[in-house]
Amino acid sequence: MKKEILLPLIALFSGVLLTLMIMSNSYLSTFTSPLHASWLTHGTGAVVALIIWLTVKTHLPQRRAGKKIPLWCYLGGIPGAFTVLLAAVTVNSPLSLSGSIVLMLAGQIVTGLIIDHFGLMGLTRRKVTGRDGLTLLLLFSGCILIIAGK
């Protein structure tokens, strides 16, 4: 399968998995607490990631010699932990799963545009255009429709 087709399908599937993770963690938090559910979710994820790594480690690309990894690259787990914790709170609120997901998506897109525009974290700068502004307008209109339609 061509990369042009496969990569968007992988990204779409990742979104499905993210929604299932948020839903199951949020439901788990109703039996325990958001913090306890977050610990359980991340513990389970760590075990699965370890199993996958042990299975495929010989097929992974090697680290580039001479390239120093920026320290901030190791901090990805911090927003991940807060995402799982905060999602457990919002999904179990009047926002529900769909309202929480659409607002999380909006936050991701706005943050992505800011990072692209300023070339933050070593990424190539990409000018934000009027088309991006229209996209944001439509995105937030959709958020309002989804949340107000409940």
TrEMBL record:
The keyword Mitochondrion does not apply. The chain crosses the membrane at residues 7-27, 39-57, 69-89, 101-121, 133-149. Signal peptide: none annotated. The keyword Membrane applies. One of its GO terms (cellular component) is plasma membrane. Keywords: Membrane, Transmembrane, Transmembrane helix. Pfam families: DMT_YdcZ. This is DMT family transporter. It comes from Morganella morganii (Proteus morganii). The lineage of its organism: Bacteria, Pseudomonadati, Pseudomonadota, Gammaproteobacteria, Enterobacterales.
